[in-house]
Amino acid sequence: LSPALRRDALLGACAGLLGGLVVGLAVLAQGSMATMVGPVALSSSGLALAAHLIISATVGAGYGVIFRYEPQSYATGLSSGLLYGLLWWIVWPLTLLPLLMGRGPTWSLVEASADFPSLIGYLFYGGISGLGFHVLVALYLRYAPPARTGPAAGPPSPAIPIRRVLILGGGFAGVGAAQRLEQLLPGDRTLECTLVSQSNYLLFTPMLSEVASSALEAQHISTPVRAVVPRTRFRRAEVEAIDLSGRAVRVRSGPTAPPETLGYDHLVLALGAIPHFHDLSGVEAHSFTLKSLEDAMRLRNHVIAMLEQADVETDPEQRLGQLTFVVAGGGFAGTETIAELFDLVHNVRRYYPNVRRDDLRFVLIHSRDRILPELSAGLAAYALRNLQLRGIEFVLGARVSGATPQAVLLGPDREIATRTFVWTAGNQPNPSLRTLPCERNRAGAVIAETTLRLKGFENVWAIGDCAEIPDPYNEGRPYPPTAQHALREGKVAAENIAAVLAGKPPQPLRFRTIGLLAVLGQRTAVAEIWGHQFSGLLAWLMWRTIYLSKLPGLEKKVRVWLDWTIDLVFPRDIVLTANPAPPSPPPAAAGPVVEEARPRATLAPEAERAS
Amino acid sequence: MNGAELLRRGILPGALAGLLGGALIGVALLRVGALPPLARLVGADAWGADFVAHLFAAAVLGAAFGILMWQQRPDAGETLFWGLTYGALWWFLGPLTLLPLLLTGRLGWEVRAAQDAFPSLPGYFLYGGITALVFVILRRHRSDAIGGISAGVLWRGVGAGLLGGCLLGIMLEAQGQLMVFSAMLGSVSRLQAWLITLLVGLLAGLGFALLYPRPRDGAGAGLVRGMIYGFLWWVAGALTLAPLLSGAGLSWSLDAARSGFASLPGYLLFGAATAVFYQWLNLLARLLFVDIAATPDEEGVGAEGLRALGRGAVGGLVGGALFTFVMVQIGFLTTVASLIRATAPLAGFVVHMVIAFIIGASYGLLFRRQSYDVGSALGWGVSYGLFWWILGPMTLMPLLLGATPVWSVAVATALLPSLVGHVAYGAGVGVTFYLLEARHSPWWIPRTEAEAARVARRKEQVLTSAPALWTLVVVVALTFPILLGNP
After folding, report:
1. Contact status of A83 with chain B (Cβ, < 8 Å)
2. For the residues A492-513, what does the mean pLDDT come to?
3. Do B420 and A124 count as a contact with CB atoms less than 8 A apart?
4. A84 touches chain B (CB under 8 A)
């Protein structure tokens, strides 16, 4: 109970007492106290008056709590008091009293007319209480020692941060944690929550492949972090160093900006993961990844550019590479990407008269013998069959050994000629965690306890794809790195931080995977929800409904829904929004090779046409 | 508080305004024979002593009003509604309480006594209004600008008034009351009656525009304000001016009010519609013409509106559950069920909840960002609930059941239990909506200095005559059926 609320309740009771006394005495003078008091047939009028006064004080305290004190608002106090009194007339003599008497309220004209005197009584009682309350509080504020008046006495003052929570990472885990903290401690002005992230938006990764396939607008699947967590301080910056013993994090907002140090009382590590290329030669330089909006846009532009080139290409070998699309990795991301690329290319094929259906080749390379290993075997088989029927090739049980600008290498003697190679076959935790003095697993993820606390640290929490968190439902094996887990982890981390701040013990994360869904292109999907399996159109509708509901931000939901609706009835867009760029930003050594390879290939048809 | 300033801009203009209001109303009360026998209090019995005493009391009350209004916003619209409430309060305090107490030693709180004092009720009400308006004029500094009245404002008022007038004409015609206005001109044709009704609408719209040139609150607040505005038009127009001009003489009697009651819901809905139309036109004008740089803290109607719809709908379900208690008590569920030609109470419950859901959503849309604490949430919610008591069971329900709505005292009193249900519903909707709104985006909790300033600004916007409106709506809704209903 805040001091101001206690003050308002107490003085409200005093004002109620005053109002009750005035009205009570007036009524008593008429000798009809019964209707004011209640069901108890009180023998003496003194007793009745006492009961009436107790009720008055209680109801008056309610006025103080509900309407609260506002400086300089006597007219408001009087008026709201009148309203309060009238509402109590409805509640007490008209409703509760008949109920307590056991005859049930009828609210009829007869009853209301009989209670009309008490209506006026309640009206005056409320008016006196309301006005009296404001006068009393004003007097109290004037004469009471300032220390006792409490912080909320005057107009609200800006926050004074005392406890700082620093969240590193603006993905589902980090934003989820910030969101939950905002909900848990909405009015806490002693808490300052800061979120540091490289990108200023929360990317809805499940829809990323649809951006790559031109079905959705890039901005529509990403929400500004500032909009999602309006009361968290946001910093767009790169984390340079984390000092766990000194409780400080060094960040830098740009390559030329000076480094800044942010202190914290609680640190949340939610830095996520980045693609991992297992040091395969040429893969990093010549493959597209699908981790950010930029990646998706680059891939989309590249695919359309390939079609543009192939339409005028005369060299059959070049054409083969241009019209072959290869994805490595048969998980959710890989499967959805190949299906979406297939949809995109076939959807816009009619713009390119020289590209025939048979020229196109879509290949998915997967190291195991079945795709979608997270799903049950039946669903995975369904997905495989479905995609194969549509014309997608699968190379199962094979590993990519390298890549060149023109081909993907599968072992020493096998290669697939392609100019579009998407890599989804490996992720690694954010490398900036490698320097932390804490336990890590082989991949480099920091190891957290079931309460999400970093092992060995009281005030550091690790969540999301960069952390390994044991799942108590699954014999202590780590939770999988998915969005639904990251969200839940963020939530629980925030709850635990709030608990620790309140001096309570943190609770372990217990979460059963709700379901897994993978979309297989046009109106087909597979889904496994609470052990039930769905496939086909129904699963596709479920995919869209569930993911649309999970997309953060109402506005973005509307936009994506519109995009989807438009996509149903209009062709996909083939506008090139940027010059086709090399797959990944080239590392210094590999740079020139790529730069050379691209312009030559793009220019060749042009030269021919000119001749 | 500066004493001299209070005297100069609070007490003195208040007393003067009270004097003027008292003189006007005193004459009227003399004519209807309801002038309070104040002189008897001091033992005077001479002719005119009552009137002088009345003037003196009116001046004192006006001065008190000036003190109360000292801190309030000085706009005409805001002060008018405070004045109306103030006048109504003094009807309860004066002729029902103090006067009989001092004269006879008894309180006049019985229905019968209140009915006897009824002729002075419109007087007190109008006294409050006149005092408020005169007070606004008297207290204004010469340097004060005339609150942003422009041609655009007047055009909006005309547009809203004509729309409202159309609605009023339709409603009055359905009640056979279309000729009410034209009665003063003798017998006229239907077309002329319609034209006169439209003219009334136009005047009402213009009046509203002048009172509220640039309302900064939402359509919901406008709706409640419009209801009271409509009530004022009923008292000033149908009860006062129309009989005066038609030569029938002023009659503020209980019987006149009973027969005029048939047009009261029409006026209330008309006022509400005019105000909402006006606010919407205003909103449209703001949307089209106000520089976006001036409204940095608005997210846009789409996002805010959709969110408010959802929250309001949840609030509607809570309010509907509260209302169900009343419905079960009075066995109203079967009547609701008849809306879908069913008879089972369960069907009635489902229909009722669907309606509660939809109206709750509309509450969210109209009243988003209007409440800043539980009290104001209660105020708006209950006012909106009472609005739906008039629009719902009194108007739409008979229409949907294929009958013509009858706005008679008998119908209103028969619907008293439903009124209580609507109050409960409104309270549920308002408070739930506020709690949801507060939970999600507590815009009044400041983070920085800039935000603190923004919060203060918004709070100032919300602290208008809203409390007076809530109180007046509830007072009128509760007392009128009881006063007029008892034979």
Report:
1. yes
2. 90
3. no
4. yes
Determine the average pLDDT of the residues in A336-356.
Answer: 90
Q: A116: which chain B residues are within 8 Å (Cβ-Cβ)?
A: 109-111, 114, 482
Least confident window among A513-522, A583-592, B137-146, B164-173? A583-592
* Plot region of A360 (φ>0 → left; ψ -120 to 50 → alpha; else → beta): beta
pLDDT in tens, A256-302: 889 999 999 999 999 988 888 888 888 888 899 988 898 999 999 99
Top mean pLDDT of A98-102, A164-168, A183-187, A574-578 is at A164-168
In this predicted complex, what is the ipTM? 0.90
DSSP state of A440: B
Higher pLDDT, A103 or A238: A238
Contacts of residue B302 in chain A, CB cutoff 8 Å?
Answer: 554-555, 558
B109·A116 Cβ contact <8 A = yes
CA contacts within 13 A on the Cβ side of A128: 22
Residue A417: pLDDT over 70: yes
Distances from the Cα of A391 to the Cαs of A329, A342, A346, A362, in angstroms?
A: 18, 9, 11, 7
CA distance A542 to A532: 13
Best of B109, B458, B472 to substitute, by most chain A Cβ atoms within 10 angstroms, is: B109
Contacting B residues, span 410-439, partner chain A, CB-CB under 8 Å: 413-414, 416-417, 419-420, 423, 427, 438-439
Contact present, A408 and A416 (Cβ < 8 Å): yes
Is A32 in CB contact (< 8 Å) with chain B?
no
Residues of A in contact with B303 (CB under 8 A): 554-555
Across the interface, whether the CB atoms of B106 and A555 are under 8 A apart is answered: no
A122-176 pLDDT tens trace = 999 999 999 999 999 989 988 876 654 444 444 555 545 578 999 999 999 999 9
Nearest to B285 by CA among B150, B165, B167: B150
Question: What CA–CA distance (Å, rounded) separates B407 from B390?
Answer: 9
Helices then strands, each counted (H, E), chain A:
19, 24
Residue A31 near chain B (CB below 8 Å): no
Q: Chain A residues with CB inside 8 Å of B382's CB?
A: 83, 87
B468 to A75: CB separation less than 8 angstroms, yes or no: yes
Q: What are A404's two structure tokens?
A: 């060149």
- Which residue of chain B has the CA closest to A107? B417
Quick check: B144 pLDDT over 80? no
Rg (CA), chain B: 23
Q: According to the model, what pLDDT value does residue B170 have?
A: 86
Mean local confidence (pLDDT), B52-72:
89
Q: Do the Cβ atoms of A75 and B479 come within 8 Å?
A: no
Q: Residue A78: CA atoms inside 13 Å, Cβ hemisphere, count? A: 20
CA atoms within 13 Å, Cβ hemisphere of A591:
4
Specify whether the CB–CB gap between A240 and A252 falls below 8 A. Answer: yes
Under 8 Å between Cβ of A254 and A204: no
CA atoms within 13 A on the CB side of B17: 34
Give residue B180's pLDDT: 66
User: The whole model's pTM is what?
Assistant: 0.77
Cβ-based contacts of B442 with chain A (< 8 Å): 186-187
pLDDT at B460: 64
* Among B69, B374, B416, beta carbon nearest to A107: B416
Which stretches within B212-330 are classed as H helix? 219-233, 242-245, 254-260, 264-289, 301-330
Q: What percent of chain B has pLDDT over 70?
A: 88
Q: Which residues in A71-108 are b (16+ Cβ under 10 Å) and which e?
A: eebbbbbbbbbbbbbbbbbbbbbbbebbeeeeeebbbe
Count interface pairs A-B at CB distance under 8 A: 167
Question: In DSSP terms, which residues pair with A420 in a beta bridge?
Answer: A325
